[in-house]
């Protein structure tokens, strides 16, 4: 191949030696140079280098040349108002005076950031998995050690730092299947239908990615509730699919009405091919919990219209109102009989981020997909394999959600005490928030049956709406921005979730500690009254 000693090509060794000698003598080496080219030398004096600023070339990646689908993506939960909140926080740290001393970020359901304490048992197992030397420590209970050893045995090299199968650690998928069977009163669950994911969002995006196809009027339409969690509209934009809105009934506690589903579907058939129906239960941002009859109606509608069902059930532990109960779509589907259970394609999602755990940062989750075509199953595994595997620590955290301590184990008493404390506290805060909002003139809040948010309707004076338009802002964005600037409270305008034309809302989490939540709600009340007075 003509290579000389040291890996240089033949004839270049001497040149390399001459270069080294020249550098040692403080001279710039001379070498062969092609005509018309410029060679950059790090040894050149700064004064000798003249940069022609006008000659700098245009950027390859610009707003005009970037992927238009990415540019179309919007995610209100971390949108402009949150960026503004970050700017205000920086100003407060610099000592710039504001009419408040801190920014209260009530825009997102991040439980631990709001002061919720972690569940001890979950953290113990993840700690043991992360640092196995602790398995010899008497400070950790045996039931936690037992689970950690089982998880580690499923990891390559008995280490959480190894890759796992793309579908997730097998023993954890078995635990998820067992959990689903217990939750649904014995309805069978197959570990092979379980896919561990990076939070529920990862699973939702993957299923949508594999579902969307076609062009023009045959492009896939995805039916989503309005108001909705902005992950759905963002994923639909990114995948260049068609968003088909169906409206929840605010006058009836945000209920889902099948007649509204049928209206949305029939109208959408004129411009796309609707084949996906997304349900969020309990609702985000609306907090409604669907009853059994409603779920049966939705399943029948999906069966009748040949729609693929997506059931976002990440708030299944967060049900507060008396008379409300969580029913999984999988369970109701099974109980409706084989004609439905053997035919309706359903993907259900759960996560470590919500519930009583609030472990958002671990990014743990799973999806169960049933009635998938065998060949499509292979395609889904292939798609998931591109991201190798979900975070293994998140998989371990998910295992504790589905395989918690049981009666008779030493950690059970503490676990159940912590779990019930979190959920009882959330139930109190849900009622407190609903009651306080409904005492404010010009605000109406439906009962917070579940989830972690209030989505009150705000009645804005026409003068405020006109001023918002003058600032080229949605009226509820204008309201929320004023609320942030005057009180330090960061909430998300309803326009970021979708709402009926002419109505205005905002979403606020109920996660702050009770005393802080009371202060927050009092501040909102005072602000709203002043806002009405100013723009009346």
From TrEMBL:
Keywords for the protein's UniProt record, in alphabetical order: Aminotransferase, Pyridoxal phosphate, Transferase
GO terms of molecular function: L-alanine:2-oxoglutarate aminotransferase activity; pyridoxal phosphate binding
InterPro entries for this protein: ALAT1/2-like, Aminotransferase_I/II_large, PyrdxlP-dep_Trfase, PyrdxlP-dep_Trfase_major, PyrdxlP-dep_Trfase_small
Alphabetized CDD domains for the sequence: AAT_like
Annotated ranges, domain Aminotransferase class I/classII large: 124-523
Enzyme class at the top of the EC tree: transferase
Subunit structure as annotated in this protein's UniProt entry: Homodimer.
Protein's name in the database: alanine transaminase
